[in-house]
Amino acid sequence: MTVNKRNNWLDLIKLMASFMVVFIHVGFTGTFGRVVNAIARFAVPLFFAVSGFFSLNVSSKTIKRRLLKLIILYFVATIIYHVYNVFGVRFTEYFTSTFTILDFLGFIFLNLPFSSVHLWFLLALIYVYLIWLLVIKFSIKEKTLFIISIVCLAIHLFLGEFLTLFNVDIPTSVVRNFVLMGFPFFTLGYLANKHKEKLKRTNNLLLIALLIFGCVEPALSAVFFGLNEVYIGSICSLFALIVIAIKLQEKTLSRFWVLLSSTSADVYVFHMLISRIGISIVNGLDISTESLLFNNLWPLIVCVICVALSLIKNLIVAKIKVKKGVLQ
Predict the structure, then answer these.
(1) Which one, 2, 43, 146, 161, has least CB within 10 Å?
(2) pTM, whole model, 2 decimals?
(3) What distance in Å separates the CA atoms of residue 264 and residue 10, rounded to the nearest whole number?
(4) Residue 119: its H or E element
(5) What is the pLDDT of residue 1?
(6) Is the dihedral of CA 211, 217, 218, 219 positive or negative?
(7) Other C-beta atoms within 10 Å of 24: how many?
(8) What is the mean pLDDT of the chain?
(9) What percent of the chain has pLDDT over 90?
(10) Three-state SS across 172-213?
(11) Do 76 and 256 form a contact (C-beta atoms < 8 A)?
């Protein structure tokens, strides 16, 4: 079984995508915020696609190991979010009126958890990996996987984008799930890796055109027809970014960028908690969160804080592993 060298450029693109998710959930204001929200819709499909990309030639044992890590992450994050939702408001009011920032900051980071709808992605990816175990077990053919993926994507675009042109609103959960979003993008990522030598020959001008279309089409659609989960342009952006990463694979990323890239999962999972806690602290300091400047800087600040905290966590985990290795 061939072992593929990891494409660090895809990890870097995942970090960029995690920032896009922050811009969707925390968000900028006005028309600009609406446009950014639409353009950023390639992000979650890209997470599925990258997971599929890294699943080429992996064993069922590896998939099961990934599944276990995902399940643990999902339940830990869910418990934390639920605890925050239950106790967060009263607790926040209490410490902002009773303690100084230095007194309660440590308590927040040690004890405040969170629950948020954005965790659907983790659950959907768990389902996708379970399906992929069946794909491996029954050796389902590439052509079959491709056809299923295209059909699922066509249904998604019909329900999620085309019908909005006629003011037909489809519930988000109908299109944002492992069937119509998770599995098809995962499979397309897998196929992209399998055929990466062909994709390397893709014309650079075509990739630039796809990226431009991937920005313009969602932006116009959002302004004139409303926000959707995924646009045709989102798929174009996703495809172009993956191909660019494939073409750049032989160029080595510096250790700095590799370290930054390792924070993408934490940014995705914990950005809502960081935003909520940050807003609580700012309110406790009697700083207005209503100003245009604050609202348009806050998504960027959340990204920076998430990356910084993730890097600190990764450093601590790395030191613990080294220490355990020495002790053993």
Answers:
(1) 2
(2) 0.88
(3) 11
(4) none
(5) 40
(6) positive
(7) 20
(8) 87
(9) 65
(10) HHHHCCHHHHHHHHHHHHHHHHHCHHHHCCCCHHHHHHHHHH
(11) no
